[in-house]
Amino acid sequence: MGISFDGGFIVNKPYKLYSLEDYFKGINSEDDDLFNHFNFILNQNMIVGEEIKAYFKKMASILGDYDGGMSIFTNYVHKEKRKVSSLLNCNNLEAIVQLFEDTKIISVETNKINNYVNGLKTVGDKRQYYLMQSGESIFTELAKVVPFNDIDLVKFSKNFGLPTGYKESGLFETERSIEFISSPTLYIHLRLLEFKDIFNLFVAIKTKEPNLIKLLFSNHGDRKGIDIPENEFDEEEMYIALKSDIATELNHILINYGNNSFEFNVQTGKFSETEKIEDLFHFGYIQMKQSLINETELRKCEYCGHYFEVNHGKQRFCPPLPFRKRSSCETAYNREKNK
Ligand SMILES: [Zn+2]
């Protein structure tokens, strides 16, 4: 079964970066407590169902696998390395929240946010695209965003909306569009890091690049606590092991997002069963899964050098972004060529 989600996704504008203080002042919230706010976001998106402890431990090990990963992270949260590793390894949300103290909130302009009985709502300029129609590049675009780079994150959000965060809460469950109003940037960056980690596995499987296969095989073995003697396995064996790893990991994440939902659709007046999409990461993971099942081809864009999923044989560039007819990479490529 493919993806049958028929809801829209809202792009609000502009998205801005706020200090915690300015954000809470801006939305005039009585609930100006970072712990409550963060806890609410976690509950809304439940960090893929895992316990907090397991989640942050996993993040620490992913960070450890990337060159300079830990120092990028410690710089981002403005804390000392020792403090950071003790926070990542504690099993206490109130302590973990300290990691967020000196980071930012990415949000719709706060003067466009109103408080309602059941949460926050936005007013003003917004557009909607449909994931099934204009979202084909979401998973490859998410993989382009560099974790812990706020400028990259703002750029992505301008085109696709916030990938996750504080969800606009409709009064009724009949609204089929998803809108994220704000999020601590650190929360999105952690989700990006996790996404990129699986996406690397995905690229290794699609491209069969020997060095990448070797590297990931050893990293994933370490994470499972298996000490793998060098040269014990040949390339094909490692390749098969990684394929099995990605199936396990994707399955684990997708199961935690929950099942399809059977519902009465007020708009169509019919009962239906749809995939309930929680956020863009959820959608991106489903796309990765579908691409593995359907054995679609991954190709490097001739302009930006990132991978995209091929939809037709001659495609040389990343697909068009939502609300655009042509590929931005193709347009930029032609412009530079004709200079
Ligand atoms: Zn491109």
Measured between the Cα atoms of the first and last residue, the distance is 47 Å
Question: How many β strands by DSSP?
Answer: 12
Count up the helices: 14
Bound molecules: zinc ion
Spatial shape: globular
Order of strands across the widest beta sheet?
Answer: 2-3-8-7
The assigned structural class equals alpha+beta
Provide tags for this entry.
339 residues; 4-stranded antiparallel beta sheet; 14 helices; 12 strands; binds zinc ion
Secondary structure: elements and pairs:
Elements: E1 8-12, E2 15-19, H1 20-26, H2 34-44, H3 52-65, H4 69-77, H5 81-88, H6 93-96, E3 104-108, E4 113-116, E5 119-122, E6 126-130, H7 131-134, H8 138-142, H9 150-160, E7 166-167, E8 180-184, H10 185-207, H11 210-223, H12 235-256, E9 261-265, E10 270-274, H13 280-294, E11 298-300, E12 307-309, H14 328-337
Antiparallel strand pairs: 1-6, 2-3, 3-8, 4-5, 7-8, 9-10, 11-12
